[in-house]
Amino acid sequence: MAFTQRSEETRTAILTAARRRFAEDGYERATIRAIAADAGIDPSMVMRYYGSKDGLFAAAVDVDLDLPAVGDLPPERRAETLVRHFFALWEGERSSGVLTVLLRSAITNEAAAERMRDVFASQVGTTLGPSTEEGMVRAALVATQLLGVALCRYILRLPPIVALDTEALVASLAPTVERYLTEPV
What we know:
The protein is mainly α and 185 residues long.
C-alpha cells in the first residue's frame, strides 16, 4: 500500500510541476528535466510514468469543462449560465491552471491546438445541442468569444480586461454568446 501511495504522490507532483512549467514556459520551452527538478525527482521517473513529453502534456491538460446542461434553461439564461461557468473555471480553484496551460501551449504547438479543438468541439459542441453543421458553427463562434477573452485576461493580461470584475465580464459577453446561440448562422 505504501508503494502505491508513493507512486500516486509522485504522479501528482509531476503533474503539478508540469502544469506550472507548461503554463509559464509553454509546451516548446518546457523540458522534462525542468519539470522533474520542480517535482524534486529524477527525469527518468517522468519518462517512467508518462513515456514522453507528449504523454506528460496530454495527462497535464486532461480537461473536463463540466459544462452545465443549458438545454433545459430558458433561452435568455443559457448564454449567461455558460459564460458564468466558464469564468468560474478560469478563476476558481478547480482549473488548477490546466486551462491556462492548454491555451498558452495551443498558441505555439499543434498538438496542444488539436487538444484545444477537441475539448471545445466535444464538450462545448455537445452542450449546445445536436452535432449538426450549424451546431458546430455555433459552438465555434461561442469558443471565439470565450477563448478570446481568456487569452486577453489570463495570458496577455490586458489591463482593461484584467481590471473588469467577473460580473462586468459576464454582462458584456453573455449577449454576444446569446446571439450565437439563437440567431441564424
